[in-house]
């Protein structure tokens, strides 16, 4: 199964129209959706394996699940900056944005620069992509040093005023993701959240309070201490 036509035929077969209403309740754009659960797409991606050319073809179909699948099978090493810019402009749903950023874009050499670039965008889903990239980078890039995440924290603090729903939720997600990476970054994220809390906007206060609730929790602290001991630090 290596042609776009074959993949699309299978996707249509796997579609569950009854799922579309539930997707809409979660704020997902279902205009071109088939109602396929993400675990099913991941299983299909494992079967297809990495295929950059096929990923590009699937993206062009504009089908919701085909685009998510494209992010799962594409090869980060073959992704160009132009591809990132093109795909990001096509984002019309938060789940596609998050899947593409977390499955693919955060593993490319352009991730850090794109966080900086996208974080000032006037387009809601492009700006969300910046913080989705941060969250994905914090989770997946085990070798990245603390400095890059401290720089990300300054961006989150700067943009915490933005009250657009899909932006503020992603900024909060990114802040929590950094704060759960290690003890040092936990302290830095808490300090950042405390400064954000002082900003006079509802978005900033929500972002900060929600993040502090988790980052100050005993569960997170104990997990980070155990992680530190395991790493011999």
Tally of alpha and pi helices? 14
Distance between the termini: 47 Å
Strand content: under 5%
Tell me, rounded to a whole number, the average pLDDT.
Answer: 96
Biggest β-sheet description? none
Which bin fits the share of residues in helices? 55-70%
Count the E strands.
0
From the alpha carbons, calculate the radius of gyration and give it in angstroms.
Answer: 18 Å
Shape: globular
| Low-pLDDT stretches | none
N-to-C series of helices and strands: HHHHHHHHHHHHHH
Going by helix content, strand content and strand pairing, the class is: mainly alpha
Question: Briefly, what is this?
Answer:
By secondary structure, this protein is an all-alpha fold.
Any key phrases for this structure?
233 residues; mainly alpha; 14 helices; 0% strand; globular
Write the layout of secondary structure elements.
Layout: H1 4-14, H2 19-25, H3 38-48, H4 52-60, H5 64-73, H6 81-90, H7 94-103, H8 111-118, H9 124-140, H10 146-158, H11 165-179, H12 183-197, H13 202-215, H14 218-230
Helix pairs in contact: 3-5, 4-5, 5-7, 7-9, 8-9, 9-11, 10-12, 11-12, 11-13, 12-13
Provide an overview of this structure.
By secondary structure, the protein is an all-alpha fold. It contains 14 helices and no strands. α3 packs across α5 (64-73) and α11 (165-179) runs antiparallel to α12.
């Amino acid at each position: 199964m290596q042609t776009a036509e074959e993949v699309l035929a299978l996707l249509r077969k796997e579609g569950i129209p009854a799922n579309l209403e539930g997707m809409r309740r979660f704020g997902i754009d279902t205009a071109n959706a088939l109602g396929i659960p993400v675990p099913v797409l991941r299983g299909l991606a494992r079967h297809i394996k990495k295929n950059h050319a096929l990923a590009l073809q699937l993206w062009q179909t504009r089908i919701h699940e085909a685009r998510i699948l494209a992010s799962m099978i594409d090869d980060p090493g073959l992704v160009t900056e132009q591809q990132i810019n093109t795909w990001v402009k096509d984002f019309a749903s938060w789940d596609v944005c998050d899947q593409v950023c977390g499955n693919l874009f955060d593993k490319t050499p352009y991730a850090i620069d794109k966080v900086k670039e996208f974080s000032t965008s006037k387009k809601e889903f492009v700006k969300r992509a910046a913080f989705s990239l941060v969250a994905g980078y914090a989770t997946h890039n085990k070798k990245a040093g603390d400095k890059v995440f401290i720089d990300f924290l300054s961006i989150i603090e700067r943009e915490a005023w933005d009250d657009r729903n899909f932006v503020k939720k992603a900024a909060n997600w990114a802040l929590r993701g950094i704060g759960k990476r290690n003890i040092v970054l936990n302290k830095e994220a808490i300090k950042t959240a405390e400064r954000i809390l002082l900003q006079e906007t509802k978005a900033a206060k929500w972002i900060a309070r929600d993040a502090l609730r988790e980052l100050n929790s005993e569960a997170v602290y104990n997990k980070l201490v155990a992680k530190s001991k395991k790493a011999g630090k």
